[in-house]
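Annex B.
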Amino acid sequence: MNERFQRGAARQAELGGPGGIRGRVYGQLADIAPDLHRFAVEFAYGDIHSRPGLDAGRRELVIIGALIALGDTRPQLEAHLGSALNAGVTPGEIVEAVLQALPYAGFPRVLSAMTVARGVLAARDLLPLTDSIAQ
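Carboxymuconolactone decarboxylase family protein: predicted structure tokens.
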């Protein structure tokens, strides 16, 4: 393993580990694209996500917004919603971040993203949101 991969793997571990959803996605593609996982760890986490300037929670909110705008990113959105929670982003902040994408990404993508967020929050027994959490 090179230094970029080690740095990226360490960053992934900080945010909840390389397993789970990320591991399943890359594992399903290992027989056809074995380097894809390495590229993601080295570039996305080793080079970009490890940069200074934003804390992990803010960085995850930016990523969530980008994934919502792209659409059709359910596995990645699930992973990054989980990472956001692991980085200290509150459930209410996640809901608000998804809502902030509405004027830019549109109702279909925000409704899809909110459905994914609901699933992630439910899996962690964080629903229903109370008024104090959602504020």
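The first helix runs from residue 3 to 14. The chain has a mean pLDDT of 91. Further annotation is deferred to the next reporting cycle.
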